[in-house]
């Protein structure tokens, strides 16, 4: 059953573990059978508690307050939990009443105080909190109507009969009504919390089950089949192909878990599964925070995403380079790919690259929608796109590229990008800009950062190609 926790002007209903053999829920049910209906609730609670061990009592106290002692509630942990809650809400909210409420007032449904209350009520489990929050808005609509979704429910929303029940029967109300505990339990624990509910006897009075039981009696208990919630999954494509062709037969991957749908496969974009879709959704949610974070916080975000994949039983896998080639195997229905797990460094590199790809796509999209910046007069340090290669800015770019070409060729892809960015900054430090002709050909426009990087990278490739061609011509001349 659910137990009310008194907070200033608020009520939080926390779910007890009714599956445990020694839980208070089972004790209350057994006590009620042998107890007169007029017996005080406190006596029943004491009798049930006497049957519990010290550890069980401690566990029930943690459930009562909605959080265990070992939960680290510092600001960073809370922010991570809120991000996790946001991720699960984005997965589950499509077509729900929560999505309707979000359209009416986004600030109300994303209220930090409201989300923290649901996290506390679910022992800081983001997924359970998201499910409870979605059900909260569903029952709120059923009980009070769509117009009440994004406003606080107060005692003024009760009718006269409910007010009378609230004032006269108090906590014993639940046990004297024909509604059985196990029928109400699902509704109560699903509802989760009433935000801003005010008691009738003043702000310091305790709100109990009676008000909630009166609200829930408006409903006919016709949704019992919803007790077994079906998990909401992100739509994905080709997962059956991925599972059929991904036979995990390497010794580092346990055979019983072959074809795990939560695995993240490194096989390009031709094979996609639930694990890859979930990873992409996580990166999409955290992309803004990642872009604004420093190096240390970026590593923290990457590590958290890796832990989230592992927490769902997923692994980061790639085709074994010593085994059969993945490209040739893809064309065979009965082909088998030998998979190996990525190292910790490879996992971090994969997620970091995913963030880069998202930033690049966002930059291209914003460039399309951004109005062009026109330039009236070309400067001597400007780099021009097109055939104007004799411009001083273009000559300076070639000189810088020639000086950095040896270093550029020695480094990996990540360092190459850093070299390109540093070269662009050197040009801009002198007042240079990267310009391209406008569509009508009458003016010059400032290009995006992505286009400038592509211009410099192409310059490195062109000069390398020219040097190789010159070397070949010299060898041919000597021969």
Mean pLDDT: 66
Count of helical stretches: 20
Q: Could you give the distance between the termini?
A: 93 Å
Our count of domains comes out at 3
Shape: elongated
Let me know the number of strands. 10
Proportion of beta-strand residues: 5-15%
Radius of gyration: 31 Å
| Biggest sheet details | 4 strands, mixed
> What fraction, in percent, of the residue positions are helical?
40-55%
Class by SSE composition: alpha+beta
Order of helices and strands: EEHHHHHHHHHHHEHHEHHEHEHEEHHEEH
Main sheet: strand order: 7-10-9-8
Task: Give unreliable regions as ranges.
Answer: 1-38, 169-258, 324-335
What does this structure look like?
The protein is α+β, with helices and mostly antiparallel strands. The protein folds into 3 domains: 226 residues, no CATH class; 129 residues, no CATH class; 105 residues, no CATH class. It is built from 20 helices and 10 strands. The strands form 3 sheets. A 4-stranded mixed β-sheet has the order 7-10-9-8. Strand 1 and strand 2 form a beta hairpin. InterPro entries: DUF6824 (IPR049227).
Layout: helices, strands, pairs:
Blueprint: E1 2-7, E2 10-15, H1 24-33, H2 41-50, H3 54-65, H4 75-92, H5 97-104, H6 106-109, H7 112-121, H8 126-144, H9 160-168, H10 173-176, H11 181-191, E3 193-194, H12 209-216, H13 239-245, E4 264-265, H14 274-292, H15 295-311, E5 316-319, H16 326-329, E6 339-341, H17 344-369, E7 374-375, E8 383-384, H18 392-410, H19 413-429, E9 434-437, E10 444-446, H20 449-478
Parallel strand pairs: 4-5, 8-9
Antiparallel strand pairs: 1-2, 2-3, 5-6, 7-10, 9-10
Organism: Cylindrotheca closterium
Region (Disordered): 17-36
Protein name: DUF6824 domain-containing protein
């Amino acid at each position: 059953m659910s137990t009310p926790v008194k907070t200033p002007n608020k009520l939080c209903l926390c779910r007890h573990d009714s599956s445990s053999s020694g839980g208070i829920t089972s004790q209350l049910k057994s006590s009620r059978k042998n107890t007169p209906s007029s017996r005080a609730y406190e006596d029943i609670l004491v009798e049930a508690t006497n049957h519990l061990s010290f550890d069980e009592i401690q566990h029930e106290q943690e459930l009562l307050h909605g959080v265990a002692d070992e939960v680290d509630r510092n600001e960073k942990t809370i922010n991570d939990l809120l991000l996790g809650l946001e991720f699960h809400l984005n997965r589950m909210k499509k077509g729900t009443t929560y999505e309707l409420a979000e359209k009416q007032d986004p600030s109300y449904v994303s209220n930090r105080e409201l989300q923290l209350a649901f996290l506390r009520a679910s022992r800081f489990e983001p997924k359970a909190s998201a499910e409870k929050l979605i059900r909260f808005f569903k029952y709120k609509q059923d009980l009070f109507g769509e117009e009440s979704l994004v406003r606080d429910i107060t005692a003024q929303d009760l009718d006269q009969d409910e007010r009378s029940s609230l004032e006269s029967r108090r906590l014993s109300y639940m046990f004297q009504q024909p509604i059985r505990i196990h029928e109400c339990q699902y509704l109560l624990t699903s509802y989760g919390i009433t935000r801003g509910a005010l008691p009738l006897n003043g702000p310091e009075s305790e709100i109990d089950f009676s008000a909630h039981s009166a609200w829930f009696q408006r409903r006919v208990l016709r949704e019992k089949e919803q007790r077994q919630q079906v998990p909401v999954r992100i739509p994905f494509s080709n997962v059956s192909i991925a599972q059929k062709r991904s036979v995990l037969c390497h010794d580092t991957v346990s055979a019983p878990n072959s074809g795990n749908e939560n695995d993240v496969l490194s096989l390009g974009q031709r094979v996609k599964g639930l694990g890859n879709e979930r990873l992409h959704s996580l990166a999409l949610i955290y992309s803004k925070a990642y872009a604004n974070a420093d190096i240390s916080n970026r590593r923290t975000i990457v590590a958290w995403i890796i832990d989230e994949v592992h927490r769902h039983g997923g692994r980061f896998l790639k085709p074994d380079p010593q085994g059969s080639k993945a490209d040739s195997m893809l064309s065979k229905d009965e082909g088998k790919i030998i998979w190996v797990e990525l190292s910790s460094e490879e996992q971090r590199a994969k997620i970091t690259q995913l963030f880069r790809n998202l930033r690049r796509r966002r930059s291209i999209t914003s460039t399309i929608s951004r109005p062009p910046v026109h330039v009236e007069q070309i400067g001597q340090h400007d780099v021009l796109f097109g055939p104007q290669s004799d411009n001083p800015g273009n000559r300076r770019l070639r000189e810088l590229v020639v000086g950095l070409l040896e270093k550029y060729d020695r480094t990996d892809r990540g360092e190459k990008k850093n070299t390109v960015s540093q070269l662009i900054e050197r040009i801009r430090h002198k007042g240079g800009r990267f310009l391209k002709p406008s569509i009508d050909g009458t003016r010059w426009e400032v290009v995006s950062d992505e286009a400038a990087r592509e211009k410099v990278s192409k310059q490195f490739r062109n000069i390398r190609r020219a040097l190789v061609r010159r070397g070949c011509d010299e060898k041919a001349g000597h021969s």
